[in-house]
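Lab channel / #folding
Pinned by the channel admin:
"Please post every new chain as: sequence first, then the structure tokens as a reply. Keep commentary short and put observations after the output so the thread stays searchable."

First post following the new format, from NK:
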Amino acid sequence: MSRRIRAVAALGLTAAALSCTACVTGPTDDPRDDRPPEVTREFRGVWIATVANIDWPSAPGLPVKQQQDELLALLDQAAEMNLNAVIFQVRTTADALYESSIEPWSAYLTGEQGRAPEPFYDPLQFAIEHAHERGLELHAWINPLRASHPTYKGELDDRHVTRTMPAAVPTYGTMAWMDPGHPDTLRHTLAVVRDLVGRYDLDGLHIDDYFYPYPQNAGGKKIAFPDGVTYDAYRQSGGTLARDDWRRQNVDTMVEQMHRQIKAIKPHVKFGISPFGIWRPGHPDYVKGMDQYAAIYADAKRWLEAGWCDYFTPQLYWSIENPDQSFLGLLDWWSQQNPRGRHLWPGLYASRTADGSSKQFDGKQVPYQVRWSRLMLPEGEAGHVHFSMKAFMEDRDGLRENLKDDVYPAKALTPRMKWLSTPNDLPRPRVAAARQQDGKTRLSFVPQSIASARWLTAQWREGEAWREAIAPATPDGLSLTLPDADDALGPVWVRACDRLGHPSRATRVHLVQTDRDSDR
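Reply from TO:
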């Protein structure tokens, strides 16, 4: 006699599954079932910065194969750390790290603005495909207003905004900057957003903290932003706002219109904003620092209150111990400015780890911040974004391993967004079971719809504890090897999830041990 797995109450089993060995699959609508808890959810993002070649590519003008290999190494590392999203900078200075008919190719990619990669490829499309294969969301990160950066000394392309709409792009200090008060700026920025969201399979579109430029000085005096002509035109047309209020209105309009436009084109594409971490000094009352409301005319508190984003990532780049810019105090304050319940995922300064500065973090600071964020944010809705990928590739002060070992021991799905409700008609995964030579049971799950499924999840009990596994919904699917036992093995609950993390109905696999003559 030998032990073998037998099916109990099989439902909807495919012939392919039966050919492996007997197993049970079926829906799980019976409320008496011992249902598993919600699968682990947390947004674990990382910024991949391309401006000044911070993260990628390592230098401008590298051979295409080297560029691709470097990008794959970044995605591999993110996946290996059990992150689940990359925020990839594709527009640094009114340029493009993707094929665009609106703006020129980025000099940070090819070394010369306007020159395409040779042999040709589209880095954004390449990144999307390979991120999704690894179970990573891909959010395209754009800087909406900066038009030049002092690290590029070469010629600007004829298609660059400094050439095509010079009246809207004044020079400010060491940079060219699109004037938010000029109507061409909003028109052009929205055209870029439409192009990106319409043509690419993005999971999100993301903007950073550069609205009006950070104040610059010359000769010990603050340089005034040169928008007198556009402000005078506004007043002559009947506008009554003071200049500072008018500037904030310009930025408010841009943020709101970007949000509206994204949702009009593809409602499932998430819109993320990562403003400076302090709204105004004194909020909360012990906080000191730059006043973004008055200095760069960003009323970020209003955007969160109005729900003009799907996730909000204030850059809380200070340590837990810092008394003037308290990480915990600021996170708590921002969480209280969120009446519409948008996801609040703080930006964490991973690159401050062992950076040699007087304010450097040790390798435990960022993991502590992750843990505190989980305690302070709603369960199943927590998250954070790390700046930037370079710190992980260098593994400064053991940061990479500290995160993987201490706070990311297993994968997680990104949190659901209740306000982005979409019909979920995903079919339940196919399941096959096979007995291995070592006596263990191997289960394989394959999505029935690769086009609409993005993840597969499995949950099962080991004693009193629930276990889970999460994998990308690729043709290879998800495989589990379960321990052998004399008692019942299972049930194992299997689901497919769509791009917004909405699960299909579960398939339950219930395996039991029975005696059967091996010669029969």
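NK: Residues 36 and 244 are 54 Å apart (CA to CA).
TO: also worth noting, The chain has two domains: 2-39+426-516, 43-406.
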